[in-house]
Structure formats: C-alpha cells, structure tokens
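This part of the workshop introduces the protein records we will be handling. As an example, a complete record with its sequence and its structure tokens follows.
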Amino acid sequence: MTDNLDRYRAPALTRGLVILEYLGRCNTPKTMKQLCDELELSFNKLFRIVYILELEGYIYQDSERHYRLTDKLNFSHSVEVMSSFGASDTCQQLMKEFTWQTNQSCHLATLQQGQVRVIAHQQPEFGPSISARDGSLLNTIKSSSALLLLAMSDDQDSWSLIRNYTLDLPLRSQLCEELIKIKNNGYAEASHDRIIGLNSISYPVYYLGKSVKLVITCPRFAQIPGDENELKALLQQLAENLSAALK
C-alpha cells in the first residue's frame, strides 16, 4: 500500500493544497516571502505553484503584493477563520471603538454547525447595557443576527439554519416577507421576545468582499436617550470596517 502511495505521489499538487489550506487558516494575507518562510519551502518550489493557483482563480495578489484566497473554494475550516478573526486585536479594537462612540454594547455572530453563535462582544465601561456573551446561541427566527444571516447568506448557509424548523404556511410566508425586506434594506431590526423595550439592530460583515459570514449587532433599550439614526450609521460603519479587516 505504501509503495502504491509513493508511486502516485504528486509533490506539486501537495504543495498547492498546503498553500490553499494555510491561507484559509490564516487571518492575514501573505507575501511570497512570508509563504516561503512560514511553510519552510524554497522560492523555486513555490513560485510556479502560486502562479498556477492565481491563474486558475484560487488566489489573487492585492496592490501590496499580498496573496489572498478568492471565494472559489468554500473551506470547511471557514468557521475557524471567523472565530480567529473575532478574537483578533483588530476586531476587538474596532468593536471597542464603537462602544466608546455610542456607549452601547455590540456583539459579533457567525454560523456554526447550523446555529448562530456569538464569537465576540464588547460592552461600554459606563452606563446601562446588555450584550450577548461569547458562545451564546441566538434564536434562528427571532434574533436580528440570525434573520440577517438567513436573508443575506448563500443558499447553503441559509438552508443549514432553517432546516430544523417546521413552519406552517402563514408563518413561512411571513418569514419570507421579512427576509425580503431585510435584504432590500441591507440590515435587520428585531424586538426581544422576552425583554420589553430591548431592540436589536444588525449589519452584515462581508468575507472577501462578497459573502456574508458574520453579523455585527447592537442591542439597545428604546428608552435610553440617543439618536437612533446616528447609532445605525455608526454600526454600519463598524460593519464596513470589519469587512475591510476580514478581506
């Protein structure tokens, strides 16, 4: 068996897969030198492989000569990428800046194994606030985070979220109308089903500038003073900054 494996071994193909998996796991793009150093491979061994991967549309080089993955492949460890990003200093700092500006909390959620899970959150240092904690699971058909993912994710992710829910025809029709509205608006709003006066606003965070893999949400008590339109504008800006950092 070992002899057969050795006979059909394809070193160039193996290195190509290693490059794709490595870029998929990393939270930052890499230069050719960084790839050589971190994968402990020579320039001569990597150059042609990287060139072919770029030619076939699996990776691309940005204006600063860093290599990034395209969305041609849907990596099974994309969950790890999202979790790693949520824990990164860049993500935490952007969310913290939002709490300083608004004195409101915020949390970041993603799809994990058919459920919407919070992977990062920040709370203001002063004033009353409420926030979903890291690891919390959000209601699929009631939370603004999940509704936004249902409305704006690709078909595969949306199906994995809704497949365990059996809805009668009127509820299904109502949900479809709500999702169409959310998609047209570009954000979602929802009132908490158990806490009176608590409303949540969610905006999408784009992965590679195209697919929605994360949602940033601000839960806010309606009675707390503040301009809601200004809050939405700042939350939308946070979502755009997170999308830029996630590329």
Summary: Residues 171 and 177 are 10 Å apart (CA to CA). Residues 76-245 form a domain with the Beta-Lactamase fold (CATH 3.30.450.40). The chain has two domains: 11-69, 76-245. The mean pLDDT is 83.
